[in-house]
Amino acid sequence: MLAVEQIDNPELLKQVAVLLAKENERLHTRIAELLRQLAATRGGDGQAELALELAKLQERVNALQQKAFGASSEKRPGDAPSAAAPARDRQRGHGHRAQPQLPVEDVPHDLPADERKCSACDGTLDEWKGQHEESEEITVIQRQFLILKHQRKKYRCKCNGAVVTAPGPDKLVPGGRYSVEFAVEVAAAKYLDHLPLERQVRIMERDGLLVDSHTLWDQLNALARHLGPTYRELARKVLSSHYLHADETWWRLMNQRGSKRWWSWCLATPDAVFHTIVPSRNTEELRKLLDGYRGFVMTDGYAAYQSLARAGPGFTLGHCWAHVRREYIEIQQYYPEETTVVLDLIGELYAVERLVKVDSRLTGSDTDEALALRARLRSERSRSIVDQIKNWAYGVQATPESSLRKAVGYMLGLWPGLLRFLDDPRLPLDNNQVERALRSMVVGRKDHYGSRSKRGTEVAALFYSLIETAKACGVEPRSYLLEATRRAIKAPGTAFLPHDLAH
Questions:
Q1: For the chain, what are the domain ranges?
Q2: Is the pLDDT of residue 362 over 60?
Q3: Contact between 473 and 493 (Cβ < 8 Å)
C-alpha cells in the first residue's frame, strides 16, 4: 500500500484524501454503534466514550484534509499584521534598484541633420558641448556560442634540430571539443538553476548550438572527476567542525528496472554543506557518514540518529526546537488555548537568540565577545523559559492518544537533546541550517526527477555540495567552480574550497 507521504501528484493526493475521509466517516458510524452496544452491556449510555472517540477521529480527518488541501505554513494566526495597525501609504511601483555589478555603456543620440533648425529664427542648431539629458535602460545581449580555433604556432631552429609547439588552453578532457567554461555553464544551469539537460539542449538550439543531452552529461561527468578531491576535502572539513547539522531527504534513481527511492544525507555547518546519496536511510548508512565524528550533531527526532548516538562513544546528540514548535503549530487549531502557551514560550527562546548574532564571518575577539554574551543571555533568560516549558508539559491536560499528548510526548522524548544549547553557546537552537541547505536539492529533484545511474547520484551530490557551500561562503558559485576546475586541471589532485576563494 502506498503511503500518503510518498505521493507526489497533487491530484492523486486529493483523491486519496477524499477516499480516506469517506472511510473515516464510515468508521465514525461503526464506532458509534459499537460504543452504544458496549454502554448497554455496562448499563450506561456511553456518551463520554463516544464523544472522545469521535473527537479523535474528526481531528485525524481534519489534519488529513489540511495536508491535502491547505497551504503549507508554520506561521501562527497571530503572526499576521494586526488590522488595527496604521495603514501605510501605498507605494506606486518599486522604484529603481541599484545594479552595481552591471557594466555601463554610453550611447549618444544625435539630432537628425534635417531637424537642426531654430524654430524662432530659422537658423542652424549647433551642438551644445557637454550638455545632454540622461536616462538609463537595462537591456540584454543574447548568449552566443563560438567555435574557437586554437592555432598553436610551431617554432624551429635553423639547424632543424628542435621543433617546439606553443601550448594550448587547458582541456577538460584530453582532445575534447568543449571548454571548461562550457562545462561549468551546464553544471550551474542544472544544479544551481535546476534546468534539466533536455531543457538545456532546447535552449542551446535556440541560441545556435546543436548538442544532445548525453554530450552535456559527459561534460558534467568529466568536471566532477576533476573536482572529486575538492569534494572529499569538503567532507573532511565538515566532519572537523565542533558541531554540525544533519538531515535527509529522498532522491530518485531511475534506471532500466524502474524508479527506486534513494536517500540524500546532508551535513551542514554555517559555512559548509556536504551531501551524499545512498540507497538507504538506515543506521548503517548514517554510521558510515559520521564514522569517527566526536562533536555535536543537531538533528530532528529520527530514530537512526538516537540509535547511533546510544551505541557510542561518539557524537553528542542535540535536538531541534523548530521541529518541536512545528508539532504544536500543526495542532493549534484543535487546542488553541494549550498550544498558545507553549508556542509563546518557544517564541521567547527565539527572541533571546535574536539579541546576539554569531556567525562564521566573525573572527577572533569579535567571536569570543559574541559567544560570551550569548552564554550570559541563555543563562539569565533562556534557562528559566525552558523550565516554564517543562512545567507546562507536565501540567497540561490531554487525553491519551490525542495529537496534543503526542506532541508533548515528542518534546519530552527529546528533552535532554533540547537542553544542550544551554550549556554551550556555540550550539544552535534549531536545525534550520541544514533544511535550508536541502532546499536546492528538493527543488532540483522536482525539476529533473533524480538521477539515471549510480554515477549520476555521485555527480549530483558533488555539485550540490560545492554550490551550496559556495553560497554559504558568499562566493558566486559559477566563478568558484571555474576556478576550482582550472586549478585541478593544472595540478591533478588539488582541492580548492570556496573558503579559499572567499579569503
A1: 7-63, 224-311+453-502, 321-430
A2: no
A3: no
Find residue 249's DSSP bridge partners.
Answer: 264
Residue-wise pLDDT for 223-232, tens only, equals 999 999 999 9
Burial of 296 (0-12, 13-18, 19+ CB in 10 A): buried
Measured in whole angstroms, how far is the alpha carbon of residue 335 from the centre of its chain?
31
Residue 239's pLDDT is 94
Q: Give the integer Cα–Cα distance in Å for 22 and 16.
A: 10
Q: Which residues contact 298 (CB under 8 A, 6 or more apart)?
A: 243, 244, 245, 246, 318, 319, 320, 427, 428, 430, 431, 433, 434
Residue 501 CB coordination number (10 Å)? 16
Terminal alpha carbon distance of the chain: 53
Which class for 266: exposed (0-12), middle (13-18), buried (19 or more C-beta within 10 A)? buried
Decide if 320 contacts 431 (C-beta within 8 A): yes
Which residue blocks in 98-210 are alpha helix, DSSP H? 180-191, 197-206
Least confident of 172-186, 352-366, 416-430: 352-366
Pairing mode of beta strands 296-299, 272-278? unpaired
On the question of a cis peptide bond just before residue 313, with omega within 30 degrees of 0, the verdict is: yes
Q: Which three cell numbers stand for residue 263?
A: 536517500
Better pLDDT: 33 or 427 = 427
CA atoms within 13 A of residue 380's CA, in its CB half-sphere: 9
Those residues whose C-beta lies under 8 Å from the C-beta of residue 269, and which sit 6 or more positions away, are 238, 241, 243, 244, 245, 360, 433
CA 135 to chain centre: 39
Q: pLDDT tens digit string along 316-352?
A: 899 999 999 999 999 998 889 999 999 999 999 999 9
Instruction: Name which residue leads in pLDDT, 296 or 160.
Output: 296
* Cα 457 to Cα 451: distance, rounded to the nearest angstrom: 6
List the alpha helices (DSSP H) in 301-353.
303-310, 321-330, 336-353
CB 165 within 8 A of CB 154: yes
User: What whole-number distance in Å separates Cα of residue 439 and Cα of residue 417?
Assistant: 25
